[in-house]
Amino acid sequence: MAKWFNVGKIVNTHGVRGEVRVISRTDFPDERYKKGKTLFLFKNEHEEPIPLTVQAHRKHKNFDLLMFEGYENIGVVEGFKEGILKVSEEELGELTEGEFYFHEIIGCHVYTTSGDEIGSIKEILTPGANDVWVIKAKQGKDILIPYIEQIVKDVNIDEKKVIIEPMEGLLS
């Protein structure tokens, strides 16, 4: 049974030439959406995913715009809306030390260096220079933790455990 990993969601079409607007869910958009790469489109009403070969990729505002080979007009991509683009586990590739896939981080329990449990990671934001991990706190509001060396001290994917050194004001 193949394992699939979400790399983006098609939210709309763009123009009339078959481009689609994608909200990206990958750390590696340039690699995932490279010309010639195959992505798999999952739609609720179709049991089998549809393989799509990337013909073109460009950034536009907060979206990734993709075109697929053989789907060069708006009429044929209209039905892709709300579809999820995925890659198979084999496509993931090796990461260097200190790099993680979103699915490995989400769900990890977060503790301070003094052993206090803060909550668990529910989402990852990619606003700019570094990722921001959204922690569902045990009580109170969500906590935003920047993924930087000064704060994130240890990540243990096997134990689903993250140790942080909170900066002043981070947890209040």
Task: Summarize the topology.
Elements: E1 4-14, E2 19-24, H1 29-32, E3 38-42, E4 50-60, E5 63-68, H2 74-77, E6 84-88, H3 102-105, E7 109-112, E8 117-125, E9 132-137, E10 143-146, E11 152-156, E12 161-164
Parallel strand pairs: 7-12
Antiparallel strand pairs: 1-2, 1-6, 2-5, 3-4, 3-6, 4-5, 7-8, 8-9, 9-10, 11-12
Describe the 3D structure.
This protein is mostly beta strands and 172 residues long. The protein has 2 domains: 4-89, RimM (Elongation Factor Tu (Ef-tu), domain 3, Beta Barrel), CATH 2.40.30; 102-164, PRC-barrel domain (SH3 type barrels), CATH 2.30.30. It is 7% helix and 44% strand. It has 3 helices and 12 strands. It has a 6-stranded antiparallel β-barrel. Strands 10-9-8-7-12-11 form a 6-stranded mixed β-sheet, with no helix packed on it. Strand 3 (38-42) and strand 4 form a beta hairpin. The longest helix has 4 residues, at 29-32.
Rounded to the nearest angstrom, the distance between the terminal CA atoms is 44 Å
CATH class of the largest domain: Mainly Beta
Sheet-strand content, in percent, reads 35-45%
Percent range of helical residues: under 10%
Q: Which segments are poorly predicted (pLDDT under 50) over 5 or more consecutive residues?
A: none
In the CATH hierarchy, the architecture of the largest domain is: Beta Barrel
Helix-strand pattern, N to C?
Answer: EEHEEEHEHEEEEEE
Count the DSSP helices: 3
